Each structure stands twice: as C-alpha cells, then as structure tokens.
Target: ABC transporter ATP-binding protein
Amino acid sequence: MSAIRGRVLVSVVGTWLQALATTALLLLLGGAIGEIAAGRMPDGGLAAGLVAAGVLRAVFAAAVPAVTIRAGGRLEVRLRERIYQHLLRLGAPLRSREQTGHLVSTSTEAVELVATYYATFLGPIMASMTVPVWVLAAIALFIDPWTALILAAAVPAIPLTVGVFERAFAKVSAGYRDTANRLASRFLDALQGLSTLKLFNQGGAHGRVLAKASEDLRQAIMRLLAGNQVILFVVDAVFSLGMITAAAVLAMVRMREGAIGVGEAVALVLLATQLVEPLDKVGQFFYVGMGGMAGVKEIKALLAERPAVPDTDGPAPATTDAGVEFEDVSFAYLPGSPVLTGVNLRIAPGEKLALVGPSGSGKSTVAALLQRDLAPGRGVIRVGGHDVAAVPGAWTREQITVVAQTTYLFTGTLRDNLKVAAPDADDERLWQALRVANLDAFVRSLPAGLDTPTGERGLMLSGGQAQRVSIARAVLKDSPILILDEPTSNVDLESEAAILAALDRLTVGRTVLMIAHRLSTVRDADRIVVLEDGRVTEQGTHEELRSGAGHYARAVRRAEAEASS
Ligand SMILES: Nc1ncnc2c1ncn2[C@@H]1O[C@H](COP(=O)(O)OP(=O)(O)OP(=O)(O)O)[C@@H](O)[C@H]1O
Model:
C-alpha cells in the first residue's frame, strides 16, 4: 500500500502542477485580451508565456493519468496476492460456498474497483480540493483581493458538499457490492450444481433465481448511476452556474469601479471555472469513488479477519517421532454444542488406528483437529511429541498427509497434479508413485501419459482414478503420518480393490489414522477406537471388541447378519 500512497502523492503533485499551468495560462490569456482591448499587440514575452503554459498543462494532463493508471494495475496484482496469502492463513475448511462466491467477487471485481478508485479518483480529487485555494490566491495576487475574498466564502462549501454526497450514497454503494457478491455466489452455486439441477429438471427454476440476482444487480447499478446524475445536476446547476455567475457579476462591478481592466475581468471569469473543478471531478467520477470506497471497506474487512487457528512463528522442532496424541481434547463448532468431549487417543509411531462410530459422532472433526484446521477448545494435541499449538502449522502439515473421500484435481496435466505434492520430483519419482498407487498402467495407456490434461476439477478421471492420484501424491509427499478419511467411500467395488491394494503399500512403516464406516476396512487395524457422541467409548483390537457388548460388537453382528441374508 505504501507504493500506491507514493503514486497518489505523485498524482496530487501532478494535478497541482497542471492546475498551476492552467492558472498561469488563464492569467496570461487575460493579460493578452487586456492588451488587445487597449489597442496594443501582446508582446513576444506574453505570447511565449502563453505557449509555455499551454504545453506544460498538456504535458501534466497526459502524465498524471499515465502514472496513476499504471499504479492502479500494479495495485490490482498486489492486492490479489495479499488476499490470497491472507486466505491461506485463514484456512478454508469453515468457508461455505456462499462465502466462496463472495470471495471470488471480492478478489476480482472489488479489487478492480479499488484500483480504479486509487488511479482515477483519489489522487485527482485530493488535489482538486486544494487547487481552489491556490486559484483564489492567484486571483487575490494578480487580479483583485476583494473579489478573491468574496469568492472564498463559497469555497468551504465544496468539501462539505462532497462529504454530504459521500454519506448519502455510502449505503447505495455498499448495497451494490452486496448485490454483486450475492450474484457471484448464486452463479458459483449454479455452476457447481449444474448436473444436479439438470438431473432434477430444475435448470429453469434456478435460471429464474439467477435472473432475479442479475436484475437486483442492475437495479443497484442504476441506483448508483442515478446518484451520479443527481450530483452532476447539482454541480452543474448550482455550483458551476452560481460560481461563474458570481464571478461574472463581481468582474463587471469591479470593472465599473475601475478596480480591474477588461483582461483581468475575463481572466477572473475563466479562473472561476477552476474553482468548481473539484466538484466537477466528483460528479464525473462519483460512481468510481463510491464503488471504490465500498471495495476498500470490503477488502479491509476480509484482511482484518483473524484465522480460526492461530499460527506460531517459532522454529520447527529438531527431533520428532511419528506418534500422535490427543490428551483430554474437547471441541465445539458452536458454543454450547460440544462435538468432542475429553477425547484421549494415542497412536504409537507406525501404529494403524481405526476410528469408527456412528455418523456425526465426530470422526472427521478429530482428523481436522490433527491437521490443525481446527483448534481444540480444551486439551492438547501432540504430533511427534510436540504440542501442535506451539509449533508452526507448516511443520505439522509436513508431518501429515490426508487421503480423503474425494480428491481435488486442479485444471492442468496429470504431472501438474502430482507435483502439487512434490514440486521438484522428476518423472522417475512420479512413475514410482503411480506404481505404488496402482495407476501406472492406466497412465501408460494414455496417449499423452503424464501430460494428459485432467480437465477442469479433474473431470477427465473417474472417482477411483482420482483417489489413486491422491495416493500417489501421498507417496510423493512421504510424510510419516497418514490420515485415511474413508478414501473408498465413493467408489465401486473394483476401484475399491485397487485402492485398498495401493493403500496397503502406502501405509507400510507409517502412523495411520483411519476414519471408517465400513467394518471390512478396519479389521486389519492394530487398534480400533469407537467414538460415540464425541466420546471414546471403546478401544481394542477387532477380536477384543467383537466379543464385547458395545457399539462395535453390535455393528459387526449387524454386518454379519446382512451378509448371510
Ligand atoms: N462446520 C461445522 N459447523 C458446525 N457443526 C459442524 C460442522 N462440521 C461438523 N459439524 C457437526 O459436528 C458433528 C460431528 O461431525 P463430524 O463430521 O466430525 O462427524 P463424523 O463422525 O465424521 O460423521 P460422518 O461419519 O457422517 O462423516 C456433527 O453433529 C456435525 O453436524
């Protein structure tokens, strides 16, 4: 932001110089007219001065926008970068789709509005507010102090009027941004849910929702433009006309009194146009100013958001093992509704622990806490013996890899998508990872191999193949701790077999937290922990738990009954 402040200053000074050249031009013009009215030819010095002032004015008029528009472009790039870095710090897990659409709109449209605001509005408007003082000084010095004094009475009305307009329309411009953000959210929703909408034949109905959001935005823009027209009218009808008429009347009165000559009278009227310039600018670019100010507020509010999980800057721990520990951990998404209560868990290095329990019992929350996407309300979580609250989040994330229920694939090639996990990996390493993930034969069968485009959000790959890309990424990242969040829950039986075989290879020698619904996948775990209603209710091996009378034994009996029927 300091760079943009510098540019705004350059633009302020540039506009001052331009106004100075204009004032000199008009004074000299008055002088020339005075000479001609007296029947004399203006001398060479006067003519040269006129040309010089004209050229200088043109140079500044061209240079100021050039400087500010370039600065605006750079500001756009920098602001987007800052927003993105901030979002990384905030973490995404708690963001809803509504917020995602809003964020896209903030980081594209609002950023553009802010950059235009700085480039074409703020500098010139700040400069123009001060220019009338100089013009009045020039009138007092070179034409007539009395006239300058009388005109000076009207000058404070300029910032006052701008202030009143700003306040009056702040709501309209904030409303405009809210409406634009809502439209972006609806659009994102429609695009992501396109196949669902088609499936239920709701494309038309949702189209009407979009059309309504679009119409709301049109109306919001119209309100902003209507405000602009009101201001233009007030500026033209009241200020410009009033100020120039006042200057003309004063010029005639003072001329009749013999205080000023014809040339000075003409210069006075011409300089009066300079006095109303700030308001003229406000009128012309009011919508840019208001849109920009709303954008500034929106971006500031986003940048002021604090991460739900604070990070620590300290050094990464020097020694570590691959153990995981939850000590008396409690957590609630919403105050008063505990999701986990006093959870104690210990996974020894290299141990495979399965977490089972009814839907909503808190299994995914345990995984999110371990990855430090969430922070516990009470208790301590240790990775490799270190309290995750006391070590940098990046270090914790280095220790852990997640293979989740679905895999996000970026638009790009298979190679790009694998290298997300290891940017420096060469092709040999990529193929080796694909072999472990049971995906090498498939990729080899593709004409473009690793260069095959994955399509937007991975639409070129089946769900099972995408899951195996995720396993290959885990191989490449090679972290000591693995979270398997039901990676086979969304695939068919054949894919499941391929994925399970790949997981068998991946998990060798690693500490594993498996989150599982299906009993078939947890049988081989070293230990099973049952979570019910946010509390650990049982733990032991498959054999130990199945002979008991708890949730696990009931679930096993149910599964066996289903299999035999
Ligand atoms: N972002 C959230 N905000 C508020 N409540 C949430 C949020 N995410 C989960 N919950 C609630 O927390 C509880 C535990 O959810 P969690 O996803 O951890 O359960 P789970 O055992 O993994 O369920 P499943 O097996 O169905 O995936 C649920 O009651 C759920 O509604």
Summary: Residues 94, 333-334, 339, 357, 359-365 surround adenosine-5'-triphosphate (CB under 6 Å). The first helix runs from residue 2 to 37. The two ends are 69 Å apart (CA to CA). The chain is about 65% helix and 10% strand.
